Amino acid sequence: MKKNLLFVFTMLCALSFFIACSDDNNGKNEPEGAVLLKGTQIYSAEKLSLKYGDSPLLGKAITFATEDGKTGTIKMEGVFDPSIIKDLLPSKTEQMVALAPGVVPGEVTTMFNVDLTQEGNKYTFEGTNSNNGREMKYAGTVDSTSMTLSVNVTMPKNDLLGTWNLAKQDMATGKSPIILSWISTSSGITIPGVIDEPWPTKDAAALLGNLVLPPMLAKYLHTITFQEDGNIVASYSSTGKEGENTVSPANLAQYYIKDSKLFLQLNIDMILATIAANKTKASDTSVLLQFASLLSKGIPLNCEVKNGAAAVYADKDLILPLLNILSSEGIAELIITQVPTAQQDMVKAIFAQLPELIKTTTEFNAGLNLEKQ
User: CA–CA distance from 216 to each of 198, 204, 211 (Å)?
Assistant: First the structure.
């Protein structure tokens, strides 16, 4: 009898041991407590603290999703407040066109998976994501009310990396820091009170590009730096005074190279706000929205780099459609109202000639010649 009782007691102890081990293993495989933020959350505006490099990056939204509390998915994209342009859109507009670039230059949206660590009532995550030759290191925290996220990106190497000066003016060779050529089969442009006979666009562009604009530009723009994280930073003088030097903030303008083109991305929040404040007509905004891809994907510019010199410029395929926007009634009125009253009639006359000049243009290039520092 004693042997039987001893056997039963031994079996109970062994069973209890295995049950305890099973409970311990389950505790290690499952997150403590309930899964936080199960499902999908979107963070933007005051709910999001986003840094690109060491500087804040505004106008973005982050979508975060998890089901098990161990792994999650993050989607980064550009966003803007639709109320900024609500008065500009046709009344039947149901879907808003993406008008903002994403977080990483060249990526309208960026998606990646993260491993989550639960710390109290929030998750932390960090890691590296690579795509299309770029590398992005990220780290952040997220809870039910807010997200902090910092990303550091290294874009693929390109020939523009580094700091560039404006090319020096050389009247002997015709070299200028300004690229400006405009060839049209029309008789030319007239400027009331200044030029009464038609002035060929070729001659007008040559005068502006070689004599008028270079000294003006040199007073204000000093250098342009193309950084490895995709930022473009300029040093300039806001007043044109000698010795004054200001550096533009990071994340204001970015770039990426694709198909031998340089795509320039701008922070457009202020642009949209300015247009809305001046009540641009909705009929003209429909023309503007045709070029939404220029805002979300970037402005495509030709880029030629050779022997320490670079030419970055737009051609007629980009410029002529934009001139069409300028010649539309609402945009033209907006610009004219900013011109001093004494010159408004002259500017109106120039705008009136644009449609015919655009129709007859065979070549139009505008940009900068740069030299490596």
Answer: 26, 17, 9
**Neighbouring residues of 147: CB distance < 8 A, sequence distance ≥ 6:** 43, 47, 48, 49, 62, 64, 140, 141
Is residue 8 classed exposed, middle or buried when 0-12, 13-18 and 19+ CB atoms within 10 A define those classes?
exposed
Q: What is the band of 95 on the pLDDT scale with cuts at 50, 70, 90?
A: very low
43 CB-contact burial (10 Å; exposed 0-12 / middle 13-18 / buried 19+): buried
Separation between Cα atoms, residue 134 and residue 340, nearest integer Å: 48
pLDDT, one tens digit per residue, over 96-137 is 445 688 999 999 999 999 999 999 999 999 999 999 999 999
pTM equals 0.80
Cβ neighbors of 295 (< 8 A, separation 6 or more) are: 99, 100, 101, 266, 268
Residue of 251, 237, 56, 233 lying closest to 160 (CA atoms) = 233
236 close to 246: Cβ distance less than 8 angstroms: yes
Report which of 357, 355, 356 is spatially closest to residue 328, judged by C-alpha positions.
355
